[in-house]
Amino acid sequence: MPNKSLIVIVGPTAVGKTRVSVELALKLNCKIINADSRQLFKEMSIGTAKPTMKEMKGVDHFFVDDRSVKEEFSAGIFEKEALAILEEEYKGNDLCIMTGGSGLYIDAVCLGLNDFPGVDSEIRKDLMLKLASEGSVALFNELKKIDPAYAREIEENNSQRIVRALEIYYASGKTYSSLRTGMNSKRNFKIQYIGLELPREELYDRINNRMDDMIEQGLFEEALGLIEYRDINSLQTVGYNEIFQYQDGLIDKKEAIRILKRNSRRYSKRQLTWFKRNKEITWFSPNDIDEIHEFLMRKLHT
Q: What is the pLDDT of residue 183?
């Protein structure tokens, strides 16, 4: 499909990816694949800043609100389903937009996932026992020594990714980040990357204000309503973990809010670290929609 193109719009949380993607989709008359590892879950809306019907402006979005947190999902499943959607979309349209802040999901579709080495069940068992006895932070500190590049890109409480990276290392002697660099599946469509960024202080102000809005909309109530699922990986994320700590009596509400904002800012930094690895991304301000559109028109017609 030499004339088919996927426009990939990336950037940190709160930078304005939804608004830019929707405006471009309206200009280009195409649909949007949402590459966010949490917004696809029906039960998680406020804490994931899921786009509202008003914000989507009638543009069709895939992977928004389409399954339950109780269902298994992964970057591998996302890759398979997203590629199937693209194949169907390209039957009637030359363009599709993919946008989101989940770097692994973006890479899965654009580059493909590596066939990582098999892992002996005893290695996983030992790591899971250590996770249960010492917690995710201890394993995260271990990962920082073994694979600092990957540790900079994930949250210290994301036990699933931490355990996965450690078990791959102990099984093969190779780091997750070194194996991942081999990701380069051939796709039968063109890919054009657009990155959105803002000055740090402006972005951090947006993040803080968004968190205040989330709390006013009922973030605490949403998280506490999901507490029975707290051990599911999809809920081991910024915006929910901190409220679970509050519910456990480990911190008060004021401290929970402070940590929510801090962890969201740290998450945005990790997102940028991930995306800045990709030298094919052309970076713009989210306020420059006309310039982005003109840039895409030039690229898509060359």
A: 59
What sign does the dihedral 218-224-228-230 (CA atoms) show? positive
Half-sphere exposure of 154 (CA within 13 A, CB side): 27
59-94 pLDDT, tens digit each = 999 999 999 998 988 888 999 999 999 999 999 999
HEC letters along 227-279: HHHCCCHHHCCCCCHHHHHHHCCCCCHHHHHHHHHHHHHHHHHHHHHHHCCCC
Alpha-carbon distances, residue 28 vs 5, 32, 170, 294 (angstroms): 12, 11, 47, 11
Domain range for 83: 5-113+183-300
- Alpha-carbon Rg for the chain, nearest whole angstrom, is 19
> Does 98 share its domain with 231?
yes
In single-letter form, the type of residue at position 90 comes to Y
pLDDT tens for residues 95-112? 999 999 999 899 999 988
35, 217 contact by CB (below 8 A): no
Claim to verify: residue 222 and residue 96 sit in the same structural domain: yes
User: pLDDT tens-digit profile of 140-175?
Assistant: 999 999 999 889 888 888 888 898 889 888 888 888
3-state DSSP of 48-87: CCCCCHHHHCCCCEECCCCECCCCCCCHHHHHHHHHHHHH
